[in-house]
Specification:
binds adenosine-5'-triphosphate, globular, 6-stranded mixed beta sheet, disordered N terminus, disordered C terminus, alpha/beta, about 300 residues, 4-stranded antiparallel beta sheet, ATP binding, nucleotide-binding
Amino acid sequence: MTAADSTPPECVPSPHAARTSHPAASDLRRGADSICLKEVTLARGGRIVLSEISLAIPQGSFVGVLGANGAGKTTLFHALLGLEPTMRGSLSINGQPVRRGNRSVGYMPQMRKLTGGQFTGWSMVASALHGQRWGLPWYGRAARAAVEAALAAVDAQSLAHRPVGTLSGGERQRLLLAQTLLDNPSVLLLDEPLASLDPARMRETVARIHALARARGMTVLMSAHDINPLLGLMDHVLYLARGRALLGTVEQVITTEALTALYGAPVDVVRAGGRVFVVAEGGGSVLQEHDCGGCGVHA
Ligand SMILES: Nc1ncnc2c1ncn2[C@@H]1O[C@H](COP(=O)(O)OP(=O)(O)OP(=O)(O)O)[C@@H](O)[C@H]1O
């Protein structure tokens, strides 16, 4: 994999992937490509969002997906979930074309509104089992075991009997992460899972997801508006801007030269105090989601 986005990659399929439509991460060969895009163009509302994107993400990679508001992070996730049609090109996961309802892919959507706050943490996690919804009265033994295992994986057993409405943002994030693990996915797509967490919780959440992914061999794509909580844990950055994508290591992608070329306008990458800042000409933040005056210019 290189930081260039022009040459279509030759995706390396896992020899085990074709045996089942829902391979566990441990069944997939490390070194094979988990996610593969070939000359993909995606549009929303009649407007092209991502154009001619080609990239290959190796099995087991932990990838930070960065880009300003509207850069196409959610659109890309929806395309990988088979929820968004491609205008051109092909997308595959574990060597198979993307399809809706693929249980190999765990997804945490953006803008998760809290509904059913009176239900317990256990019920909230269980509600995601095979598309079930809140408060079903009975689950079989296998379903209950899956919920227990998912809660244990995120260290949330103590939240199982708490009403969700009484939980902190970070505790709810853990339950949402548990939901994504129910089907033992080999790929996790997490759309801004750090939103609304304080810096300490952000770091803790990234470390938890990273450890889980490493232990299970899962490929993780995590979108974010601040690169800093991901530093040191990401294997790769996928940076989206102007309909284009740049994939590579932090050292390859988060540079003044690479990002200036991607944006087609002067961008400065400043490193200070172990943190990284991506700053547009004139001093404004390139990535920061909210407009908060002098609150910083984090990438
Ligand atoms: N349902 C929709 N109909 C029309 N256009 C849409 C729709 N959803 C998104 N878009 C547009 O598609 C583009 C990409 O949006 P997308 O949500 O993928 O960006 P994003 O990188 O996830 O942004 P953010 O960081 O704000 O979540 C934006 O210009 C957006 O306005």
